Amino acid sequence: MRKILCVCNTYFQLIEAIQLKNVLFSKDSVTVAFSNLSRNAGQIIDRLSTLKVFNSCYLWQCREQMNLQSSNRKENLSVTIKEIVGNGGFGNPFESDFYDDLIYYNQFDNLKVVFAELYEKNPQIKVSRFEEGIFSYADGEYLAKKDKIVNPLRKILGKKTLLECQHNFYCFYPELYKGHLNPVQIPKIEADEKTAQVLSKLFHTSTAVYPQKYIFFSSVFDFEGGAPVGELNVIKQVAALIGNENLIVKVHPRDSIDRFVSAGLNVDNNSAIPWEAIQLGRDFSNHIFLTVNSGSVLSVSMLQEKKPKIHFLYKLCDLCGNPAASVNTRKISEILSETCLKDKLSDVDAPESLDAILD
């Protein structure tokens, strides 16, 4: 029996960890560490502990460490040393245990310190990554400036680096992964199976009801990545075209609900619940999903037999002043052109005109 640590920073990653435990790792001891970066993280971990899905559950206190770039030089030097020698970490309770496997997605200082400490207890530890939505399939490994110091010093000390210990990439669509890791398929989450039932209890999804035919998923590119792309203006145009009573806005966790309410739009009161948890086990085939370029509309839809219609509306926005939005849009275009996904994306498009959303 292996002992596995899954480090999760988002609810999507947590959902993956639950499915991995229930299906691929059912005979293994699995610990989940869920960061305090997600809304209501502490409440969710308490609830998850009572459901007995994992052998151990921890709330990962890492917000302070993720902002070390703005900290003083002494703190950065301390973290660098911890990444090199693998002791005296951030005091997370799971760091003192022996693990055979470490699975993560986000690569940053806090994770590297955890790896360094776990490596000291088990130099044969295997490291793997899991996906963060379909846009994450390109190799996300990178060398930060500090890694150019940390990695050579670890090698001098006879210690492997994080990247040298990597093995698998756990994902729902291994045929899309073109990186250097070994792709391992995460089995599809079925509506009537254990993971879907766990998610319903964990997030209380029964309270989420959607009588509106159109659901708009907001993104972050009106306030991140560069100049605003004009998403709110597009949503108001949609409301005027189809009738405000037929539209509800699922607000992004980092977005402000107030700006949509002030515009007179209907806002989903369950926006704090991860959409993937809501959509699993539901039939949204009679709904129409709209977004500028949010990947959450695809995560579950592509796994379901009965799919909603999905319209990406980035062609109706001004992306030229927002480099991050442009990169994200290019990824969407590449996915929509994948021939191996033709069947899964038959009801997905990126229309030139708003009239195309009319059913």
Brief sketch in words of this structure:
InterPro entries: A-2_8-polyST. The chain is α/β, with parallel strands linked by helices. The protein has helices at residues 11-22, 41-51, 63-66, 73-85, 109-121, 147-156, 194-203, 231-242, 257-262, 275-279, 296-299, 323-336; strands at residues 3-8, 29-35, 56-60, 101-104, 126-130, 166-171, 182-185, 214-217, 247-250, 288-291, 309-312, 348-349.
What do these coordinates show?
- By secondary structure, this protein is α/β, with parallel strands linked by helices.
- The chain is 32% helix and 15% strand.
- The protein has helices at residues 11-22, 41-51, 63-66, 73-85, 109-121, 147-156, 194-203, 231-242, 257-262, 275-279, 296-299, 323-336; strands spanning 3-8, 29-35, 56-60, 101-104, 126-130, 166-171, 182-185, 214-217, 247-250, 288-291, 309-312, 348-349.
- Strands 3-2-1-4-5-6-7 form a seven-stranded parallel sheet, covered by helices on one side. It has a five-stranded parallel sheet with strand order 9-8-10-11-12.
- Helix 12 (323-336) links the parallel strand 11 (309-312) and strand 12 (348-349).
- Helix 1 (11-22) runs antiparallel to helix 7.
- It is globular and about 65 Å long.
- Residues 64-70 have low confidence and may be disordered.
- It holds the Pfam family A-2_8-polyST.
- InterPro entries: A-2_8-polyST.
